[in-house]
Design brief:
single chain; alpha/beta; seven-stranded mixed β-sheet; three-stranded mixed β-sheet
Length: 116
């Protein structure tokens, strides 16, 4: 398992951090829990984001820490997600998590899929 520091890799906004902590607490998750993000085939632009809570690390996981939150991804996904910010909005134009990905050449209107 590789551990990277702030300034490299995956980031989380203050809004997403607050929402993640709230959801983890509501689910009764312990201090070993983290956010796992990955990229899977699918969606209208070809690739989709997947996000879940986890507490079991895999040997090839890439681990990033931002604002005290561990964000974990697999070796394949890190190539698509490098320097991506996990964000959260509760505004009128959409509520939920979304990714600000500088590697995406295009995204779909719903923001759930992208292409590189």
């Amino acid at each position: 398992m590789s551990t990277m520091t702030i300034g490299e890799g995956l980031f989380i906004s203050d809004a997403a951090l607050a929402r993640v902590r709230h959801l983890m607490e509501a689910e009764g998750r312990g201090p070993d829990s983290f956010v796992r993000v990955s990229v899977v085939s699918g969606g209208c632009s070809g690739l989709s984001y997947k996000m879940e809570f986890d507490d079991v690390s895999q040997p090839t996981d890439q681990v990033f820490t931002d604002k005290g939150m561990r964000i974990v991804t697999d070796m394949k996904s890190v190539l698509y997600l490098f320097n991506t910010m996990l964000d959260y909005s509760d505004g009128l134009d959409g509520k939920g998590f979304y990714f600000q990905n500088p590697n995406a050449s295009r995204t779909c209107a719903c923001g759930e899929s992208f292409a590189v």
